[in-house]
Design brief:
- The protein has a single domain (3-280), classed as Lipocalin, CATH 2.40.128.
- The protein has two helices and 15 strands.
- The protein has helices at 3-14, 185-192; strands at 23-27, 29-41, 49-62, 66-69, 72-79, 83-92, 111-125, 130-144, 148-155, 158-167, 170-183, 211-224, 228-238, 254-268, 272-276.
- The termini are far apart.
């Protein structure tokens, strides 16, 4: 899978949203075109990163049970005012052979994580359309190379605070979230294992285990009107306390991802559906 395709998956899930009213009729489907720039570490704990400009295509579909929209790809399994059960997705970029820490080791295919996510809207306030949402996603990690293989499992509970802010007399959506990461042994081995055959004088053999995988802080600022979406985002990964933090492939405990994307929507269906942005709706 091309790096640009994987970045499409990640950016779709980083957290963009809308500024529509709580319930409003919107097109059943839209197709958007745009582009952006992302700076991202080769993997969590790597001292090397890249800056990648990329084109961007965003198909949007607002179905009853499946949705691909500005909040990401979601399969809505059930919903109430406070609780929601989704199918969640997340992606990780491939690691090529030009990474110095992994010199001589096999390249790593991109990973796609997929699984159920239970969501609880713990607090809301009508002023500034504020909300605090607790998420508990449990996902299986799949490597996407010549075939599709199960790599391991991840549990990443998070708390997200969202609110509307006004910038230049226009409403924007701002969110900040913190999450804790746990992973299976096989998932951690995928990135941080050093087999004896790959050991060198400066890269000793290492056996990664299951358990705590660090923490993540992310924030995003975005605006959507009828024909355009603008999103800016940042993600900070911290590996302090991770069960694999003493792996020779972990070169630093912190890593920062930065990016932005601008998308225009020239194609929209004539059919409309009523949209209720659950994440932003106050009771």
């Amino acid at each position: 899978m091309a790096r640009a395709t994987v970045l499409f998956i990640i950016l779709l899930l980083v957290g963009t949203s809308t500024t529509f009213a709580d319930a409003e009729e919107r097109p059943l489907w839209e197709i958007g075109f745009g582009g952006g720039v992302i700076q991202i570490p080769d993997y969590r704990g790597s001292s090397e990163s890249g800056v990648y400009p990329y084109p961007f295509v965003m198909p949007i579909y607002r179905g009853r049970s499946f949705q691909a929209d500005e909040e990401g790809i979601k399969g809505v399994l059930g919903e109430s005012n406070r609780l929601r059960l989704d199918v969640s997705f997340y992606g990780n970029v491939p690691v090529n052979g030009d990474n110095d820490a992994r010199a001589g080791m096999e390249t790593l295919d991109p990973l796609l994580e997929i699984g159920p996510m239970l969501r609880y809207k713990a607090w809301t306030a009508s002023r500034h359309r504020q909300s605090l949402i607790l998420d508990a996603p449990l996902r299986v990690a799949l490597s996407l190379g010549d075939g599709v293989d199960v790599v391991g499992y991840a549990l990443t509970p998070r708390a997200s605070y969202r609110r509307q802010i006004d910038l230049c007399d226009r409403p924007w959506k701002w969110s900040i979230s913190g999450e804790l990461l746990w992973g299976s042994r096989d998932l951690h081995r995928y990135y941080y294992q050093v087999d004896p055959v790959d050991a060198t004088a400066w890269r000793p053999a290492y056996d990664a285990g299951a358990g705590f995988g660090g923490s993540r802080l992310r924030t995003s600022l975005y605006r959507r009107d009828r024909n355009r979406l603008i999103s800016l985002y940042a993600v900070y990964d911290h590996l302090g306390g991770a069960v694999f933090e003493d792996s020779p492939l972990v070169e630093r405990q912190g890593g920062l991802t930065l990016g932005f994307v601008v998308i225009w929507f020239p194609f929209q269906s004539n059919d409309v559906v009523k949209v209720n942005q659950w994440e932003w709706t106050t009771e």
